[in-house]
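We modelled the chain as a single entity of 180 amino acids. Its sequence is:
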Amino acid sequence: MELIRHFHLFFVPLYIKHLNITQMKHLTVYFFISLLILSSCKKYDEGPAISLRSKEKRLCQEWKLDKVLQNGEVGSQDGDIVFWEFQKNGNLNTIHQSMEGGSTVSYSMTLQWRWSKDKEKIEITVDHEAKNDLHTYASLIKYSHNIDIISMQIIKLKIDQLILEIEDDGNILRLEFKQR
């Protein structure tokens, strides 16, 4: 059984050894064309082009908000620390830590997330409790306070970096996360 699983390790070198020059040239051309096609098929604007990990495996982990951009300009986080943890079961745990009166205050909430049909967006369901919790909701999004589902465009999804954008009334909010 072990031999069958590793058969390609023995077969491929023997196959290549018996190719003539013309066949090797064709094989090389096919290889580079395949590589070119695969590299041009990236799903997200800023990558990655190719990943051996699934989208869910890359997304479902703990993230720390690193930077917030509003319409291309760095927004203020006022020393606040925000963590998001996407879970495979559809939960999104959020933690927002801020300084109030010289001590750290922490707010947490569990929301629901899902992929859009094309897996280019993440849809987050915001319940009424989250809307009333200004700290959590403000850390989630600055605008769109009257909707129940926030659709976030995935710009980059790597194992150690996540970039999401939300567009609302011509304003673009860009959230850049680093792996925690």
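As a brief sanity check on the tokenised model: The first strand starts at residue 62 and ends at 70. DSSP finds six helices and nine strands in the chain.
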